[in-house]
């Protein structure tokens, strides 16, 4: 099936509604473990939207676990009252993939709040750069994201800055196939037509870290509009 932006946008809208319900129902609270929050979100997604399948592992990370990129599997932590935490879920909605990530700050720490705000701010700058440069390669956009992070006095925490998204299952995201990622070794234009003859669509993800303070933030969603 040919990927269409309209269907991907619909899937993302439901993912956004799920995240709104997570906040409304206060599933993220001090004293709860990452695993408990993850399980509750899974059950809520099925109850509200009938979501049962995910195309990648569900991530809830708090405290120093926010330093870890996607591929790692740090031990389960308990959320503290002054914590920073991010959620990264990739639900399959009517066979279309969504990928949605947000950061939450439990207390009033201005430094953590700035870290969370900057991941969203940098995402929008990266997305504008992507839209304004139709010939941009994955490597060029990755480099731009790294530079943006440094300009805001953070370190870019991920080995990638995003990936393809589509109708499930989209092009297999094997690590060695760099053209599927916003990756420093992807020298293919991101707007190149895919194997199915249709325009490919992308997720941009921004992972910022402060290694000294052992905290990070994360923001991701569908790019290009």
Question: What key phrases describe this protein's structure?
Answer:
225 residues; 9 strands
Structural summary, described in words:
This protein has 225 residues and is an alpha+beta fold. It has one domain (5-222): Creatine Amidinohydrolase. It has helices at residues 5-24, 34-49, 110-132, 138-151; strands at 59-62, 84-89, 92-93, 96-97, 100-105, 155-156, 162-165, 201-210, 215-222. Strands 6, 7, 8 and 9 form a 4-stranded antiparallel β-sheet that branches. Helix 1 crosses helix 2 (34-49) and helix 3 (110-132) runs antiparallel to helix 4 (138-151). The longest helix is centred in the middle third of the chain and has 23 residues, at 110-132. The protein is globular and about 50 Å long. 40% of the residues are buried. The mean pLDDT is 93.
* CATH topology grouping: Creatine Amidinohydrolase
CATH superfamily: Creatinase/methionine aminopeptidase superfamily
Mean pLDDT: 93
- The helical percent reads 25-40%
Please describe the biggest sheet, giving its number of strands, its sense, and whether it closes into a barrel: 4 strands, antiparallel
End-to-end Cα distance, whole Å, is 22 Å
Number of strands: 9
CATH architecture heading: Alpha-Beta Complex
Q: Just give the CATH class.
A: Alpha Beta
SSE blueprint:
Elements: H1 5-24, H2 34-49, E1 59-62, E2 84-89, E3 92-93, E4 96-97, E5 100-105, H3 110-132, H4 138-151, E6 155-156, E7 162-165, E8 201-210, E9 215-222
Antiparallel strand pairs: 1-2, 2-5, 3-4, 6-8, 7-8, 8-9
Helix pairs in contact: 1-2, 3-4
């Amino acid at each position: 099936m040919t990927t269409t932006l309209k269907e991907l946008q619909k899937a993302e809208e439901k993912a956004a509604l799920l995240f709104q319900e997570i906040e409304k129902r206060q599933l993220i609270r001090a004293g709860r473990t990452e695993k408990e929050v993850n399980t509750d979100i899974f059950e809520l997604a099925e109850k509200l939207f009938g979501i049962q399948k995910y195309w990648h592992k569900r991530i809830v990370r708090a405290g120093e676990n926010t330093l870890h990129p996607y591929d790692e599997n740090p031990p389960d932590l308990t959320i503290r009252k002054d914590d920073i935490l991010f959620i990264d879920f990739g639900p399959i909605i009517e066979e279309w993939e969504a990928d949605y990530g947000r950061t939450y700050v439990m207390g009033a720490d201005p430094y953590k709040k700035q870290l969370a705000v900057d991941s969203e701010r940098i995402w929008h700058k990266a997305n504008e750069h992507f839209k304004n440069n139709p010939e941009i390669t994955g490597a060029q956009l990755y480099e731009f994201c790294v530079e943006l992070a440094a300009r805001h006095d953070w370190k870019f925490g991920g080995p990638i800055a995003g990936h393809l998204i589509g109708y499930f299952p989209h092009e297999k995201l094997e690590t060695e196939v760099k053209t599927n990622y916003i990756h420093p070794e992807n020298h293919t234009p991101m707007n190149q037509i895919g194997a199915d003859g249709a325009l490919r669509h992308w997720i941009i993800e921004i992972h910022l870290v402060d290694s000294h303070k052992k905290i990070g933030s994360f923001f991701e969603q569908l790019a290009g509009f």
